[in-house]
Amino acid sequence: MEQINNIEVVPCTSSNYMKPFRVHYSQNGTRKSWDFMRTHDSVSILIFNTSSHCFILVKQFRPAVYMCEWEKHQPAPAGEEAGGAGDAADAAGEEKASGAGDVADAEKRSRLPPPSAGVTYELCAGLVDKPALSLEEIARQEVLEECGYDVPVAKLRRITSYRSGVGVTGARQTMFYVEVSDEDCVGEGGGEPQEGELIEVVKVPLLEAMNFAYDENIPKTMGVIFSFLWFHSNMAPKYKISTNV
Ligand SMILES: O=c1ccn([C@@H]2O[C@H](COP(=O)(O)OP(=O)(O)O[C@H]3O[C@H](CO)[C@@H](O)[C@H](O)[C@H]3O)[C@@H](O)[C@H]2O)c(=O)[nH]1
Ligand SMILES: [Mg+2]
To answer: Where is this region: Disordered (predicted)?
Structure first.
């Protein structure tokens, strides 16, 4: 189980991962503006293990998801803006001096959502941040690093690409499909430790995939849902699966 503490929220003034901009433009003679974020494009990979007839997904703590939940845990605003960054810092802060402060700290800490509130099920995925590599090569690396399967680039089949966020980023994600077997498994996966990645590899049996996809109690990305549906309409006949989608 994740242990999340010492949360501190600060304004993001520069980042290797995103850059905010505002564009002013005229559309059919009307002056408009839009705020957007420049980010990396990405790849995602639906992995199907043909030995165990399971999909291989990753599960990881996503700070952005957690902070959305955190905001919901804050008390209703009483004269002042709820959920200021300072509150988040205090809520999970280090032990301070004993006494009345302790009571206040404990109360704030009790308003923290559990770490599981920030954990999501996702396709194996990664940023396109290595200009020398093709999308397929980046996808191959992610499958190895995050899930521990060593597969040749030629086995990656492009499913499609789409805009992963149209309101804020406009970034493109390209989705691949790859079949692996237990023999392709060369490690545990889990991500790159030097990048601080902590990824859990999880298997979803094919027969449970549709219930998994539509279970709203299981936090997941749209990519998981879409790719499971794609599998059912494109690959199910090969695996003689009857589909009631
Ligand atoms: O603010 C940040 C952002 C990223 N990282 C690092 O960068 C890595 C990025 O990992 P990578 O596997 O390349 O990308 P993902 O975080 O998996 O993101 C992909 O997978 C997501 C879930 O499918 C999609 O939403 C994204 O668009 C897609 O890029 C992270 O693990 C961190 O090490 C940070 O340290 N701080
Ligand atoms: Mg990733």
So the answer is: 77-114
pLDDT tens profile 62-100? 999 999 988 887 777 765 444 454 455 444 433 344 456
Tell me if ipTM is over 0.90: yes
What span, in angstroms and rounded, lies between the C-alpha atoms of 112 and 118?
11
Q: Does the beta carbon of 241 sit less than 6 angstroms from any atom of ligand 1? A: no
- Of ligand 1's listed atoms, the one at least distance from the Cα of 165 is 27
28 in the Ramachandran plot: left (φ > 0), alpha (ψ -120 to 50) or beta? left
pTM: 0.87
CB-CB contact of 119 with 38 (8 Å): no
- In angstroms, rounded to a whole number, what is the distance separating the alpha carbons of residues 116 and 60? 9
Q: Which two tokens stand for residue 144?
A: 């190895």
Bridge-based pairing of strands 172-180 and 157-163 is: antiparallel
Q: Are 53 and 205 in contact (CB under 8 A)?
A: yes
